Amino acid sequence: MTTGLARYDFAERAIHWLSALSFLYAAFTGLAMWSHKLYWLAGVFGGGNATRFAHPWAGLIFALVLGFMFRRWAGQMRLDREDRVWLRKSHQYAMNQDEGMPEAGRFNAGQKMLFWLQSVAAVALLATGVVLWFPEWMPRFLRLVAISLHPLAAVLAIALIILHIYMGTAVIPGAFRAMIHGRVTSGWVKAHHPKWFRLTLR
Ligand code: HEM
Question: SS in 3 state form for the chain?
Fold first, then answer.
C-alpha cells in the first residue's frame, strides 16, 4: 500500500544510491592509498593491487552517475533570491531557530549548495584522477597539479558527504526513509519544505 506524498521517484533513488555506493567505494579505496596509516583499509577491498585497480573505476562510475544526477536535478537546484537569504541566515537553521527563515521549496538552499559543491568536486576529481590514472601520457606540470588537487577535492567531497549523511539520518527524521521508499508524510513536507507543499503538492 502506498501512503503519503511522493518525494523521490524510482529513477532518482536508483541514481542516488548508485552515486552513494560508488562514492564510498572510491573514497575508502582512495583513503587506503593516500596514507600509510589508512592502508589497512586496502585489506577490506582485497589487498593493495585490487585497491589500486578498483579505485579509478569506482571514481569513473561515480562521475558518470553524478552526470545523470546533474541532468535530473540541476534545474531544480538553481538558487533564487530567497535561497540567498536562507544561506545568509543558515546559522539560525543550524541552531534550530527556524522562525524567520525563508520557506524551502523541494530542496532547501543548504541541499542545493551540497549539490553544486559536490558537482564541482566531482569534476575536479575526475579531471585530476584521469591525469593520475595515465601519468606516463601527461606533462610534468599537469601531474604536479593533479597530485595536489586530487586529495584536496577528495577531502572537500568527503567532508560534504559526512555532513550530508549526518543531516539525512540523524537531524531530519523521515529523510532517510524518503530516499528508500520515495514517500513522506504531508506533515513532513509542511515542516521541512513548506513552499514545495504550497506550490505543487496541496
Ligand atoms: C552514502 C551515504 C548517503 C546517505 C546515507 C545519503 C542520504 C540521503 C538522504 C536521506 C537524502 C534525502 C534528503 C531529503 O530529502 O531531505 C539524500 C538526498 C540527496 N543526496 Fe544523499 N546520501 C548519501 C550519499 C550521497 C552522495 C555520495 C551524493 C552525491 C555526491 C548524494 C547526493 C544527494 C543529493 C544531491 C540529494 C538531494 C538533496 C539533498 O537532500 O541534499 N548523496 N541523501
Answer: CCCCEECCCHHHHHHHHHHHHHHHHHHHHHHHHHCHHHCHHHHHCCCHHHHHHHHHHHHHHHHHHHHHHHHHHHHHHCCCHHHHHHHHCHHHHHCCCCCCCCCCCCCCHHHHHHHHHHHHHHHHHHHHHHHHHCHHHCCHHHHHHHHHHHHHHHHHHHHHHHHHHHHHHHHCCCHHHHHHHCEECHHHHHHHCHHHHHHHHC
Q: Which atom of ligand 1 is nearest to the CA of 169?
A: 10
Q: In the CATH scheme, what is the code of domain 5-201?
A: 1.20.950.20
Domain ranges of the chain: 5-201
Q: From the CB of 160, is ligand 1 less than 6 Å away?
A: no
Q: Could you tell me the distance, in angstroms and rounded to a whole number, from the CA of residue 193 to the centre of ligand 1?
A: 16
- Which residue has the CA at smallest separation from atom 26 of ligand 1? 20
Per-residue pLDDT for the chain (202 aa), expressed as one digit of tens each? 467 899 999 999 999 999 999 999 999 999 999 999 999 999 999 999 999 999 999 999 999 999 999 999 999 999 999 999 999 999 999 888 888 899 999 999 999 999 999 999 999 999 999 999 999 999 999 999 999 999 999 999 999 999 999 999 999 999 999 999 999 999 999 999 999 999 886 6
